[in-house]
């Protein structure tokens, strides 16, 4: 039986697509092995949101070739779409597949075998009209599944390469999403996470909306949880907030990108809201769903960001009732408007600001977790690890750990929370919830 290893850089959408590729290999008689071990074929699904992601991709390519000197090495994803020539220059690479080609690589080349020189299959992004595979899983224990419902983006944020790498916004049909949700539930998954580049834009070109999709999916028999992976603040409507508040299947959790708490920087970023408008959306969520977990993306060191601008962001986030932060250090990306902006922030200053903001995020997460102490929460548990703990998440996206022998993987359990820090909550199992 031939073997294949796969690895992913970047977002949950990339993870979903990698898993879909994995299932395609399985149907063709391949056996999945751990990435970095010998394999007949190695697939790297890349990200290109930062220079660090590009560098990590190149490191993974070299690692895969060292593990499998005679194996076939395939590179796909956003880096492959944006800079195929750079990847084709690497002697380790056999094939480079772009956004349009990644879901049909077998039909493009037939048998996968070592190439005398890298073969590149990358269409211009404006020719990408396919949606690609839609349903995928995140782990072998069949706990949560990522369902790809949307791809591409019509926004033009000045720092972002995603429209260049993934093309225009497009959505999978409600019927197709529903059929795939049923398939995932039949396979044993208890939570479905809706993923995409701009999930809130779902259906905008087809006469549908994210709310329409949510209304259909919550009625699918056997679904325990439905979660939205991320949503832009300008697309988070009162109707969506009310729906999440009122539907038991919906996870009380929103991840809402901010990027900066300074209006000056938001304008330079070409974001579609002000800091005040963002804050209003956060308070609307908190008022309607007081227990809701709220995650925030922030970028530090954007061109022109002064100490005063950064202080605005710090103060803005400190006063905002959010649960955790994902902090990214700005990186100049080719072919984006921001790459040519003046007043670059020195790299050392960017790193210091990232460190400081991550400390704010740690305090936010600790406070979020501490707010659950002495309460009982419902947790969907995943695999245990070598520390003897089993971890899972609440519907509000708080991580909870209990002794591994207290419950099994893919179990929904009531847990009384006894302790908390910035990493997770700890507690004791009270009652297993029937499926």
Task: Give the arrangement of secondary structure elements.
Blueprint: E1 3-8, H1 12-27, E2 31-33, E3 41-46, H2 51-67, E4 72-77, H3 78-82, H4 84-88, E5 95-97, H5 105-109, E6 119-121, E7 135-137, E8 144-148, E9 150-151, H6 162-166, E10 170-171, H7 174-186, E11 191-195, H8 210-217, E12 225-228, H9 238-246, E13 253-255, H10 263-269, H11 275-288, E14 293-300, H12 307-318, E15 324-329, H13 347-370, E16 376-384, E17 389-394, E18 399-403, E19 412-420, E20 425-432
Parallel strand pairs: 1-2, 1-3, 3-4, 4-5, 5-6, 8-11, 11-12, 13-14, 14-15, 18-20
Antiparallel strand pairs: 7-8, 9-10, 16-17, 16-19, 17-18, 19-20
Helix pairs in contact: 7-8, 12-13
């Amino acid at each position: 039986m031939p073997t294949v290893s796969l690895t992913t850089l970047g977002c949950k959408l990339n993870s979903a697509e990698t898993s879909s590729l994995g299932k395609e290999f399985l149907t063709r008689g391949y056996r999945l092995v751990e990435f970095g071990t010998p394999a007949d074929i190695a697939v790297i699904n890349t990200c290109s949101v930062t220079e660090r992601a590009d560098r990590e991709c190149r490191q993974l390519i070299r690692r895969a070739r060292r593990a499998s000197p005679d194996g076939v090495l395939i590179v796909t994803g956003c880096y492959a779409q944006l800079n195929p020539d750079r990847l084709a220059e690497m002697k380790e690479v056999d094939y480079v597949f772009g956004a349009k080609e990644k879901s049909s690589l077998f039909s493009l080349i037939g048998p996968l075998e070592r190439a005398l020189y890298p073969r590149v299959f990358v269409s211009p992004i404006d020719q990408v009209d396919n949606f690609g595979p839609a349903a995928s899983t995140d782990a072998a224990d069949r706990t949560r599944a990522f369902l790809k419902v949307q791809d591409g983006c019509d926004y033009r944020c000045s720092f972002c390469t995603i429209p260049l790498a993934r093309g225009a916004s497009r959505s999978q049909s409600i019927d197709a999403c529903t059929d795939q949700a049923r398939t995932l539930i039949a396979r044993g998954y208890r939570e479905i996470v809706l993923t995409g580049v701009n999930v809130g834009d779902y259906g905008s070109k087809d006469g549908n909306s994210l709310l329409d999709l949510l209304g259909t999916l919550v009625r699918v028999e056997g679904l325990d949880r439905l979660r939205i992976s991320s949503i832009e603040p300008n697309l988070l409507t009162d109707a969506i907030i009310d729906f999440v508040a009122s539907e038991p299947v919906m996870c009380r959790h929103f991840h809402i990108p901010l990027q900066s708490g300074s209006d000056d920087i938001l304008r330079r970023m070409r974001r579609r809201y002000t800091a005040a408008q963002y804050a209003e959306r956060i308070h609307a969520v908190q008022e309607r769903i007081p227990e809701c977990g709220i995650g925030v993306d922030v970028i530090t060191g954007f061109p022109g960001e002064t100490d005063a601008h950064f202080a605005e962001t710090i103060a803005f986030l400190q006063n905002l009732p959010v649960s955790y932060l994902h902090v990214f250090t700005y990186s100049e990306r080719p072919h984006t408007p921001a790459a040519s902006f003046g007043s670059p922030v020195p790299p050392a200053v960017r790193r210091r600001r990232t460190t400081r903001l991550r400390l704010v995020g740690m305090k936010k997460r600790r406070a979020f977790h501490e707010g659950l102490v002495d309460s009982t929460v419902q947790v969907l548990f995943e695999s245990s690890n070598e520390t003897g703990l089993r971890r899972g998440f609440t519907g509000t996206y708080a991580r909870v750990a209990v002794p591994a022998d207290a419950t099994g993987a893919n179990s929904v359990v009531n847990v009384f929370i006894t302790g908390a820090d910035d990493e997770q909550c700890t507690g004791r199992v009270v009652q297993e919830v029937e499926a």
